[in-house]
Amino acid sequence: MATIELEALGKIYPGGVRAVQGASLRIEHGEFVVLVGPSGCGKSTLLRMIAGLETISEGTLTIDGACVNDLPPQDRDIAMVFQNYALYPHMDVRTNMAFGLLRRRRFPSAVRALLSPDYAANRIKERQEIDTRVLSAARTLGIEHLLARKPAALSGGQRQRVAVGRAMVREPKVFLFDEPLSNLDAKLRVEMRAELRMLHRRLGATMVYVTHDQEEAMSLGDRVVVLKDGLVQQVAAPRQVYEQPSNRFVAEFVGTPTMNMILGDMEARATGMRFRGQGIMIEGVLDAWKPFIRPQPRPVVLGVRPEHVRIAGGTGLPATVEAVEHYGDRMDVVLHCGDRTLTARCAPQPLQEGAQVAVTIDLAQTHLFDPDAAGARLRA
Amino acid sequence: MRRGSRKGSIAGRFLRGFLAGLALVLVALSFGRVGWRTLSSWRNSASIEKELVVLHWSGEGGPEEDAIVEDALRAFESAHPGVRVRRINPGDAGSFYAKLQTMLASGEPPDLFYVGAERVASFADMGLLEPLDGRLEADANAKVSDAIDLSAFYPSTVAAFRYDGNRNGVGTLYGIPKDFTTVGFYYNKDIFQKAGVPFPTDDWTWDDYLSAARAIAKTKAADGENYIGSEFVTWPMMVRAFLRTEGTEVRGENFDALRLDAPETVAALEKLRAWRQDEVGTLTSGRSKLATGAAVFTTGRVGMAGPFGRWVVPEYRRIRDFDWDFVPLPRGRVRANVIATVSWSVSARSRHKDEAWQLLRWLVSPSSQAANAKLGLAIPTIRAVAESPAFLDPSQKPANNRGYLDPAPTAEVVDWPADPRFEQLLGGNLDRALKVGDLTLPQAIETFKIQWRAEKESPLAKPGFPAYAWAPVGWTLGVICVAVATALGWRVLRPQGDRAATRETRWGWLLASPWVLGFVLFMAFPIMMSLLLSLAKWKGVSTLDTATFVGGGNYAQLLAHDPRFLTSLKVTLYYTLIAVPGGQALALLAAVLMNQKTRGIHFFRAAWYLPSVLAGVGVAVLWRWVFDTDGGLMNAALRPALALVNLAPPDWFGKDAAAWGAPAFAIMGFWSVGGGMMIYLAGLQSVPEELQEAARIDGLGPVARFFKVTLPMLSPVILFNVIMSIIGSFQVFTQAFVMTGGEPGDLTRFYVLYLYNQAFEFYEMGYASAMAWILLLITLVLTLLTMRGSRGLVHYEGLKR
Q1: Which chain B residues contact residue A103 at CB under 8 A?
Q2: pLDDT by residue (tens digit) across B518-545?
Q3: In angstroms, how far is CA B212 from the centroid of its own chain?
Q4: What residues 708-747 of chain B have any CB closer than 8 A to a CB of chain A?
Q5: CB pair distance less than 8 Å for B688 and A84
Q6: Reported ipTM
Q7: Domains of chain A by range and CATH?
């Protein structure tokens, strides 16, 4: 268990490409932190910098209070699980798992035997300990029966377990995961997700996990770090990221279907707030917005999660049903409303394509963003 | 969709049709050429015009000799309407004999060709040469205007082409000598003056020779280095020339009675050995083919060079740095000299013998000889021409032309037995004592006697083997082949359930047919023939009907009675032992270096690979300078380093050849590890980067990562490269052929080189075929052993993804 501290960490590749800049973050003992973002956002680079596989161009990285910027990977007491598992194809599962432990010797056996009279005895004890650790990790992961096999004879899920097991037996301060589930099929991925979560609870170890899948990030992380173009966008618990995205990018990146973003003007009127834009007008009483919404219309981007677009029977914004996707427990409806489409998520109901419906949106459940490029969240 | 696929199939049909047509045209063209040749040869035999084929060489004579022969032939054509002459000049003597062999074996011999006196016995024994005495007599009786008058020739030159089935000099005449030479020494007049030694005279003795050489060896050149007294080439012919001046010989009355270990022979040889081996700087001798004796003289660092004939004169006339002259062979206990001569001979299988004889008369006529004499290359065989200004040209060096002519009346040809192995065995073994110095003279003589006895007493040498039953064997095999081909053809071409699949298959075979035909004709058929031939005794210079059936005789002789075969195997294995591990380690190391992501790495990869694409002979010529003992780059680099530990660099192809000869070739091979390197590089680049990273996190340093991760992942590639390199190491030929020719002795005679010697120098095609099959077995066994032995070490899992 360990704390990890990133202080203004940056990576500049030869040629001047900045993969990561100014990443600051404190990861607590036993925390499960997920780095998430679209491809090329720098999440893997950041993880590899923590691992020591990439050099750190700027800033400091501290593990348990000690700066490890210049330590090679093997001295950082970390273990890493790779996307393609990176199992040694020429070794059986047992050796693969034990390999990291076997190799931690400074001198050849003969020299050690000379230096230490108890060498032989220690060696046997050491071996037994390694065996015990491998076995217990294998038991935890349910791969005991695979120990004698070679990786080529394993399925994807089994290989994944071995890769995790290899990290476990090392009992490292920090576990690092680099998109470990992305090569598995969808069902297996969900299963493994739950297993990892349980494993984390059981081990209580500090884990840093990289994924491009926001759903995976939300379901796994104690906290989620959203990255874009090498910059940290938001660091927060999954629920907070969902409910209070710090900017337009985070709001759109997290959640499926994507949040509806409506361009328009917001103004304060005597009766309450009024939003108008793209042929859509919404009114409502919302005191919380008073500090930054004035009577003069202000250009904003209004964000509405699909589940907050209600299809009502009576009055509301008139809309046409364009497409319907049934999921059994719920349905997604693509609506034409005003000058644009809106996505709504609702309980299953009989809706035909082309049907005329009315839509209501509660302003209290919407998000307001700056219409500029940064798209910062407008709210006190 | 339907229309699209329909269109695609029309385009596809067109393409297939086009390709099939192309394939057929190619096949037709390649076979058409052969057919056309056959056809035109029929037409030729039917027409009135007769075509003579003349085969000759122009090694030292160069383009001038080529032009002189050409002029003579064209003149003959215009003087003899109705006869056309086609001339073939493959280049030097070596290529000439190779070409002659293939022409003879194919049953289309040249009508007229050069024959060196040393080959008369073996060629006559094989019945290749037309006896000429009858024709001379007929000409004399018919009083032909240009009849050859043998009495005008130097008698010994004519005697050289007589052979009675046992020895040279008497019996049937098989060729008319076109030119000849006696031998002696060329000396550097400038060095003689510097050393204060009087110029040698025509009646000098070996004592004079030796004291001159010793005096020169004590003289320093301008750069402070001592001159070398003399280059003495220890070619078997020259050793025998030397022996004759000492009144002795290696043979007695004939080659069945050898006088090699007679006391006077041993004493004379011992003298030669002592001059070369026990004195520093007095004598040198072409230590190998590295520097042929003739070229050494042109460096201006040796006082004398020889014994050479007239043939070096065109080369020496280009010397500008010093003055030189010629002096005949010194006198020992007796005065003696030898001649080397080449004849024009008529093929026994010529279809136009009369015309060929006419042409022969034309080519050895006084006027032709006079034209030839201008080259300075050799002496006309007609005495009057030799004594005329055509040869005795005072404006050209050497001044002492009489030095060649005066010994001629008493000089005799150096004859050899019909079995060409005698000369090679004698030369090789004597060289071990005279040149290399790793055997004593008695040892060398003993080795020679054992090897020669093995050859003579070989069951294969005895007559009485039945003629090879080509007809039944050929018919049986032919029927089997046709049956197998039909069966296979039916299997692959028969209609299958699906019409489209049938068409697909038939088209496929049609398109592949050029390759299939090529494989059958140029691979399968020769392979089968060599298997049949390995059971035969067949001289490669006669047609196949002369072959006799010896069963497993070739194999038995090879495995049980041929010490040279075992030697060549040992040399090759020694080479393999060094070249394979060393070469692979180096290739891998180079690949690791070339796998770095450095700027300009592409240049380095290309540079490392470059030697692998260079032509073999050129590279070999280059390396023979590198390994030159005294002046070579290798020793120049090694000398200072080895001097620190008080060692001298090895005399690679000289006296250290037993230990260093094969390794020198291995070192040379290391230069071209580029091919293996490229394969390793591809292998290295397919090792996933993630594995390296995983290993880094597991705590492995760079070296441990290489041995624990990279190497196991690379193991299938290593196995492949090792097997290829083992196979390659058994096929070493070009380098050895060019650089040492297997010398000294048999110390660098690699397996394939010995095979070549058997096939193309001794013309033992059956024996050579047996060797080829044994080689195949050896490589097969070694490959299987390697694959078995590496089972636990090779991990194919890395290849699966």
Answers
A1: 698-700, 704, 708
A2: 998 899 889 999 999 999 998 877 778 8
A3: 36
A4: 708-709, 712-713, 715
A5: yes
A6: 0.85
A7: 4-252 (3.40.50.300), 258-369 (2.40.50.140)
